[in-house]
Design a protein that fits this description.
Layout: H1 4-14, E1 21-37, E2 40-58, E3 61-67, H2 72-86, E4 98-101, H3 117-132, E5 138-156, E6 160-179, E7 182-188, E8 191-192, H4 204-219, E9 222-223, E10 227-233, H5 240-247, H6 252-255, E11 277-280, E12 301-306, E13 309-310, H7 317-323, E14 331-332, E15 341-342, E16 346-349, H8 356-361, E17 365-377, E18 383-395, E19 398-404, E20 407-411, H9 412-418, E21 419-422, E22 427-435, E23 438-446, E24 449-457
Parallel strand pairs: 4-6, 9-19, 10-17, 16-23
Antiparallel strand pairs: 1-2, 1-5, 2-3, 5-6, 6-7, 6-8, 10-24, 11-12, 11-16, 12-13, 14-15, 17-18, 18-19, 18-20, 20-24, 21-24, 22-23
Helix pairs in contact: 1-2, 3-4
Length: 463
């Protein structure tokens, strides 16, 4: 992408006015996004995006710039402009870039970019027809196909020079069910760090049926009662609650500045002893996995909480300086247009000892949140509010009727402490997470868990 000599010259220019660390991030990305609405292709976008980001540290200060003009003279000019912005004192510079290859933990069999677009549209039509024909109540279906190949080169003044290829594929179906003027939405969107071979492993017709099943179930449901009650949160997309309400508060982006409810609590009991939580970017071919992070550090298995004890945070290079700790391979960014910061990869609560059936049968009365939708959280306080996309009442230890309009309200710390049953059926759900460094693919996961008391918002009055 860029020659070693050009990179060296850019790094020298970036440190020409001082600074104690410089980094070059080169990205060459190919992606395809096809959207089918009403059975017809609404848009089909295939493109290439190439650019270079340059970052310089001086102590705890950082300046970042980027460009899509990769001519050497332009890159050197940008690097010098960044150097001037730091207003530092020039020191001795000695570079010795050592080329290395990141071990590939995520083998790809079929590069999606090599596949004919007609095959991709055919998949969309199969998913659409399956979803639309599921039931007469389904009035609208949207299907999306997505793939990308991201090639990166990362070099820095510490001698790092490494390249990596990331390939991801995802299939998305959204169904709308309508009845008596009411509409409910269901969606399902599996994805992986895999190539086109992903479609040998999933059935897009089943993806379409699942999206429509959710929409139909919810449009026929009664409104959820409100009140404080036990809440059983299912696996797969239930993991978004831990991701948002707790995971963001464990990222150094907020911890290093003291803006997290979990700042300065390493070694303390912050959760139920039943809870062990991990972020692991090394899991083979998972949606949130990477060989190296966007700072060139190998990803790793980070045990965040072990038996309720806070063990570690997710840390990038700059915040590692602020916290006097090591990077955990958690520096991520959407593209070359963003400076990296600490982010999650595949974040999940580890399996416990209870079965799904035991958790339900031991819950006399409460809410079963099978799938969670969107929500909001304040990392400084952990306060959250999440919509339940698919929910059911639990009565006399059994799952009974579906309910809609439910929301979960509380704090991350409260949830962690009140988990009193953890299942043995951990799975992942795929999502895209937004933060300071843009949108990045992340896996959320957990087994079925029970929170013994949580505020449930609903439209039917107290339960």
């Amino acid at each position: 992408m860029l020659s070693k000599k050009v990179i060296e010259n850019v790094l020298y220019a970036a440190l020409s006015k001082g600074g104690d660390f410089a980094e070059v991030f080169v990205e060459d990305r190919f992606n395809t996004n096809i959207k089918l609405v009403g059975g017809y292709v609404e848009n089909s976008i295939s493109g290439r995006d190439f650019g270079v980001g340059i970052r310089v540290f001086d102590g705890l200060n950082s300046v970042y710039g980027y460009t899509n003009d990769s001519r050497e003279d332009n890159l050197i000019k940008l690097a010098k402009d960044i150097a001037v912005a730091l207003n530092s004192t020039k020191g001795d510079i000695a570079l010795n870039l050592i080329e290395s290859n990141a071990p590939n933990l995520h083998p790809i069999k079929i590069i999606p970019n090599n596949m004919d677009k007609a095959k991709k549209v055919e998949l969309l039509k199969l998913g659409y027809n399956s979803a639309k024909n599921y039931d007469p109540l389904i009035t609208q279906v949207t299907t999306n196909y997505f793939d990308e190949e991201q090639n990166v080169l990362i070099a820095n003044s510490e001698g790092l020079l490494v390249e990596d290829k990331r390939v991801r594929t995802r299939f998305y179906v959204q169904s709308v069910a309508s009845k008596d003027g009411e509409m409910q939405v269901g969606f399902y969107a599996p994805g992986a760090s895999k190539g086109f071979e992903f479609y040998d492993e999933i059935d897009v017709k089943e993806v379409g049926k699942e999206a429509s099943r959710i929409a139909k179930t919810m449009v026929l449901a009664d409104y959820c009662p409100s009140g404080v009650m036990p809440v059983v949160i299912h696996n797969e997309f239930g993991g978004v609650l831990f991701h948002e309400a707790c995971g963001h508060s464990l990222e150094a982006t907020s911890v290093a500045k003291g803006l997290s409810v979990f700042a300065n609590k390493l070694g303390e009991q912050i959760a139920s002893p039943l809870v062990t939580a991990i972020d692991d970017g090394t899991l083979p071919n998972e949606w949130g996995s990477l060989n190296i992070d966007d700072e060139g550090t190998p990803t790793q298995k980070n045990v965040l909480i072990e038996n309720g004890i806070l063990k570690s945070y997710l840390i990038d290079k700059l915040n590692a300086r602020r916290m006097n700790m090591e990077s955990t391979g958690s520096g991520r960014r959407e593209s070359y247009k963003f400076a990296p910061t600490s982010r999650m990869t595949n974040t999940f609560i580890v399996n416990g000892d209870s079965t799904f059936e035991e958790i339900i049968s031991n819950t006399e009365k409460g809410l079963f949140a099978k799938k969670l939708g969107g929500g909001s959280v304040n990392p400084a306080t952990g306060d959250f509010n999440f919509a339940v996309m698919e929910g059911y009442l639990i009565e006399n230890g059994k799952i009974t009727k579906p309910v809609r309009g439910a929301s979960l309200i509380g704090t991350g710390a409260e949830v962690l402490e009140k988990i009193d049953m953890v299942g043995n059926n951990q799975t992942f759900g795929q999502g895209v997470c937004g933060s300071l460094s843009g949108m990045v693919p992340t896996n959320v996961g957990q087994p079925t868990i029970r929170i013994k008391a949580l505020t449930v918002g609903g439209r039917k009055g107290d339960n």
